[in-house]
Automatic annotation (TrEMBL):
<protein>
    <recommendedName>
        <fullName>NusG-like N-terminal domain-containing protein</fullName>
    </recommendedName>
</protein>
<dbReference type="GO" id="GO:0006354">
    <property type="term" value="P:DNA-templated transcription elongation"/>
</dbReference>
<dbReference type="InterPro" id="IPR006645">
    <property type="entry name" value="NGN-like_dom"/>
</dbReference>
<keyword id="KW-0804">Transcription</keyword>
<feature type="domain" description="NusG-like N-terminal">
    <location>
        <begin position="5"/>
        <end position="115"/>
    </location>
</feature>
<dbReference type="InterPro" id="IPR036735">
    <property type="entry name" value="NGN_dom_sf"/>
</dbReference>
<dbReference type="Pfam" id="PF02357">
    <property type="entry name" value="NusG"/>
</dbReference>
Length: 206
């Protein structure tokens, strides 16, 4: 079995941005860059250390997830067969990183690549945790907003131990058709937001 032999190469500007979505590819390649897709298509094992950020779309205000390279303009490729010329033929590859004049491409030890993999993994886990916290906060705010809407619609005098949803379900038959439809929609949204066992306590009376 050939051992790993990692080399760095320069990329054409713009080729490290995310490639267009291709539904035929597996989920693990959903956020790959153009240069990664081109290298993999031609059979090369590529590693582009990256980090993720959530950005707000400038027109729709939708939160979108983006991936960016740690090393702008560079990526690593495993070339156990030392097929440098084949790599140079990949669309988006400018050339391999070389040492001083007269030296060939610089080979990077496995330990250095492993350290970069680990750093990328740690950064990814921190991003996923922050993303989870943001979504949970948004869900909690939406729950409070929907309960506030129910509070304005339903009759006063709810008992402290009766949840807002339970009260709405009991009182719904006495409401007008239009208000009844609105309350049913709010209940449906609340049920969807509080479906997880982790947030079951949010279903209690506010």
């Amino acid at each position: 079995m050939n051992r790993s032999r990692w080399y760095a190469f320069r990329t054409v500007p713009g080729y490290q941005r995310m490639a267009a979505v291709d539904e035929r590819l597996p989920e693990s390649r959903r956020m790959e860059s153009i240069i990664e897709r081109n290298c993999r298509k031609d059979g090369f094992d590529i590693f582009m250390p990256s980090f993720y950020r959530e950005l707000k779309h400038h027109r729709t205000n939708e939160i979108i997830e983006k991936r960016f390279p740690f090393l702008v303009g560079y990526a690593f490729v495993n070339l156990p067969r030392l097929n440098f010329e084949d790599l140079r033929g990949v669309d988006g590859v400018i050339g391999l990183l070389r040492g001083s004049i007269g030296y060939g491409p610089i080979e990077f030890p496995d330990g250095m690549i492993e350290d970069l993999y680990f750093a990328e993994h740690e950064r990814r886990q921190a991003f996923l945790y922050e993303q989870h916290c943001r979504k949970e906060n948004e869900r909690h705010e939406q729950i409070q907003h929907l309960r506030g809407q129910l509070r304005k619609i339903l009759p006063k005098g709810r008992k402290a131990r009766v949840s807002m949803v339970d009260q709405a379900e009991r009182a719904i038959d006495s409401l007008s058709p239009q208000i009844k439809e609105r309350v049913q929609k709010i209940i449906s949204e609340l049920n969807a937001l509080t479906a997880d066992a982790e947030v079951e306590n949010l279903r209690k009376a506010v």
